[in-house]
Structure formats: C-alpha cells, structure tokens
Amino acid sequence: MKKYMPVLLVSVLLASAVFAFGALFVLPGFEKRTDVYLQDFSISEDGSAITLRTALSGSMGYIRDMEAEQIGGGIHCSFYSTFGGLNSGFGAKNSFQIKVDGSVEKIYFDRGEEPDDLVLERDVAAGAWAQKRPGP
Questions:
Q1: How many structural domains are present in the chain?
Q2: Does residue 16 belong to any structural domain of this protein?
C-alpha cells in the first residue's frame, strides 16, 4: 500500500488542479455584467428587430451573451461575461438583436441592485426610436 501512496497523492493533486482551472475558466461566464452601455442601434427595414451595439464602461472583460425579457411594454436586457477568466475575449460579442412588436415602447439594461436603466424609447406618435442617454 505504501508504494501506491505517491501515485494516489499525485492523482488527487492533479484532479484538484484540473477542477480549479476548470472552475476559473467557466464560472465568470455566468456572471452578469451591469456596466454595459448602448453605443449605437439600428432598426430592421420591417421594424421587427432592433440591433444593439454595446460596450462596457469597465476596463476589464467582455460580453458574451444577452438575455432579453419582455415585461409589459418594455424589454429588459441582461448581459453576461465571457468564459475563460477575467479578461478573456473567448466568445466575445458586442452586437445583439432583439425582436420587437407594436407593444414594445422601451428597452432597459440591467443595473444589478439599482433600477434598470432606460436606454431606448419609442415615440409612439412618430414611430421612431430614440436613445435616452449616451454611454459613459
């Protein structure tokens, strides 16, 4: 049994290192980004989709995904960090498309504990979308 102890110890240490590295690689990708701002937007020809071009006000990290949820007449957007560590660009995107219909009048970005930030609003009379506040 004593001759197998070093092999067992090395196996446990190696498995622990692989698990720790895997956790550091994967876990940041499930973290929400609340420092996203709207750089620019465009509307499809038929008005059924809006493309948002985003950026981060923070100095580190990238965005990999956006989740949009319609609540009443507004769409609330949540953004997620990339996988691969604090400043990894693995899977980074800055352009996201949202499907909109006639009932959507406002688009918000998630700000975590603070109220969501209104970034786009539709003037119903004119039928045009306007950016509410430029980036940082």
A1: 1
A2: no
Percent pLDDT > 70 in the chain is 79
Specify burial of residue 9 (Cβ count, 10 A radius: 0-12, 13-18, 19+): exposed
Q: In the numeric block, which tokens belong to residue 57?
A: 């006000």
Which helix (DSSP H) or strand (DSSP E) does residue 21 occupy?
Answer: helix 5-26
Model confidence over 42-70: pLDDT tens digits? 999 998 999 999 999 988 889 999 999 99
* Residue 53 lies in domain: 28-131
**Within-domain flag for 107:** yes
Q: Which of 4-8, 42-46, 83-87, 88-92 has the highest mean pLDDT?
A: 42-46
Dist CA 112 CA 80 (whole Å): 12
**What sign has the CA pseudo-torsion 80, 35, 39, 105?**
positive
Please state whether the predicted TM-score (pTM) of the whole model is above 0.90: no
With 0-12 CB in 10 A as exposed, 13-18 as middle and 19+ as buried, what is 130? exposed
